[in-house]
Amino acid sequence: MGLDFSVIPKYLDIVLLGAVWTIAITIGAAVVSFFGGIILAIIALYAPKIISWPFRAFSFLFLGTPLLLQLFLIYFGLVQIGIDVPAFMAGVIGLGLHFAVYNSELFQTSILAVDKGQNEAARTLGLSRLQALRKVIVPQAVRDVIPPIGNNMIALLKDSALVSVIGVSELTLSAQRAIGSTYRPFEFYVLVAIIYYIINLVMEAVLRHVERRIQVSR
Amino acid sequence: MQRVFPFFLEAAWTTILLSVLTAILGVSCGILGTAARLSRFLVFRFLGAAYVSLFRGTPALIQLFILYFGGPQIGIQLDAFEAGVIGLGVNVGAYMTETMRGAIIAVDKGQAEAARTLGMSRWQAMRKVILPQAMRLMIRPLGVNINALIKSTALVAAISVVELTYTAQRYIGSTYKPFEMFLIAGVLYMIIIYIVGLGVAWADRKARIT
């Protein structure tokens, strides 16, 4: 069986719709992972042990196991405990939590790296501990880790392909659907690879632009 | 639980085998990629850069699918395990290329210049002066690559290689005990990663003493 790329145009709209879902899930999971990462970092650093310990155990488990396995756990596990979430939500939660744990590691180091005087000055000015964190420390810490967080988000885009296995109709699964009716895996997977690559290039360009702006603002 | 455990152990063995073979192929591709990226010839530099960009810029899962499902269309017939090792190995090699190149670039420029001034050829300077220093720098980051590699072997579950994740998925489906199955597979993954981590730490210590 040779190659025949002429089958693609007929299915292009399905595949492009899948690309829209891939972008949506990437953005959704990126938002979850960003704020989840900050919250996890603050809990790990400042919460009393009795609260932070279970979160640490959770982080440890999520850092040491494959994302695919975690997706299976979340998708089937939520159903098991009676929460029936649509596959898309399960995908956003799974991807978001996975990367929140990675982002949390970055946030923790950068929060600790913010000069101690900043916190002391904020407290002296009458801000509460939480206010000082929210208005003084975290904004500075976030600015310092934008490049590595951005790299995590680009990794997130590529890992979003995994949610196809729990039935989210994103780019990879829509390609599989098209392959199901055309039996042309090579053509469609190459097409999908090209689309991922383009989204990836756009994200890299945006990240570089943001990095430059941070440099300027210093 | 006791009934399924032996199957998990068998699957863990497959995951270990996959990881080892993938790591060997990945390091080989990494060495080739690094050599290409640092070459004097523009063609090789371009090929190396294209390799890294394409394989890091697209999902590993899609690369696996192109190889395993699309391969037969262009005359490449592989079974799932072979496709898994080759697909993941070439993918990881792109990440390792960046790690190795980074370590080599991180060695002080004066070292190469001094070696050349002493009459060494480019290759001699690389082999006797730069590489021994770069090796030390790359052990830790390569350890991180290998850690990620072990977790990414889970992807081959999608082309139905019976490894840990595939086994967990199968028993989640048949026992309706997602948390238990996740824990068994998860702990086995973490044991593998922990042992590899010990090996990396040992190599790192060793390299620092000499």
Automatic annotation (TrEMBL), chain A:
UniProt superkingdom: Bacteria
CDD domains for the chain: TM_PBP2
Record Pfam families: BPD_transp_1
Keywords of this entry: Amino-acid transport, Cell membrane, Membrane, Plasmid, Transmembrane, Transmembrane helix, Transport
Main location: membrane
GO molecular function: transmembrane transporter activity
GO terms, biological process: amino acid transport
InterPro entries recorded: AA_ABC_transptr_permease_3TM, ArtM/GltK/GlnP/TcyL/YhdX-like, MetI-like, MetI-like_sf
Transmembrane segments: 20-46, 58-79, 85-102, 186-207
Family recorded in the similarity comment: Belongs to the binding-protein-dependent transport system permease family. HisMQ subfamily.
Name of the protein in question: Amino acid ABC transporter permease
